[in-house]
Amino acid sequence: MRATGSSGGVLTALADYIVRTGKATAVNAVGSSQSSPSRAVPVQIRSREDALASAGSRYSPVAVIDGRRSLASDQALVGKPCEVSAATRYLGLERAEDGPILLSFFCAGVPSQDSTTALLTKLGVNVDRVRSLRYRGEGWPGSFVASDADGNTGRLSYEESWGQHLGKTVQWRCKLCPDGTGEHADISVGDFWNADDRGFPVFENAEGNSVVIARSARGAQLLEEAAAAGVVVLATLDLDRVARIQPLQVKRKRELAGRLLGRLLVGKKIPRYHGYHLLRLAGPFWRANLAGATGAAKRSAPQWMRRLAGRRARDGG
Known about the structure:
The chain has 317 residues and is α/β, with parallel strands linked by helices. 36% of the residues lie in helices and 16% in strands. β3, α3 (81-90) and β4 (101-105) form a beta-alpha-beta unit. α9 (256-265) packs across α11 (286-300). The longest helix has 15 residues, at 286-300. The radius of gyration is 21 Å and the shape is globular.
């Protein structure tokens, strides 16, 4: 389970533990489509076999709750931070622990489905005949590995697949997200990367380790019970260390106010965020936020405005 999961296999192990102990009748999560393994689909975990089958990251668009079924109070959810936040709002929960068990993970955004298709094509894998696809796993962080029914197999390291291909197609909405670390969940889990001398993450394969944050009393109790049952092994961790090896999450949140301002300047609507303290976080980093506002305004401006700016630049205006 630890090798099959994306990080330390913690979410996979917790999903198995939750259904095995009857804490929920099912865990709503994501797996790969049996008919088209290059696509992600919503699944329900009701057994250890289900948990293992859905283990691992899926870097493609998918809705855990897809509209055809609702999230029942006796079920649990493993979802992106935005999905967990949406679940709490949709269910009208004052606190996460008032409803279904909610589990989340550190999220850098959702790449387009087209980026997976392009990567498969680049590696010589027949997109229409994909037999298996893993974005990570079998090591930490593991590799992007895909094979087709014709016997073709493609492989890329995590740093190459995410850093050079998938990560570059993250949808714009994700770049305006204030919560990449599952703040609304009972428990959120992320990679606790090995670090270099400067404290930045390195992606050499190793055994997986996760940072696990209990964000509610129920989440803390669930973790303690899972540890007592031998499902996970816990040790205390300084959150400043987590911030150093998750620099993207830190940078994105403290510079989000600038991006939002940039969109407002060109007449675009922005989401309304409450309780994230974005202005307070932005204050010490006003230069970075100013640059972010400029970049967001350029990307978000209507075409006629970009043409006008380009014409003025050519005329020396």
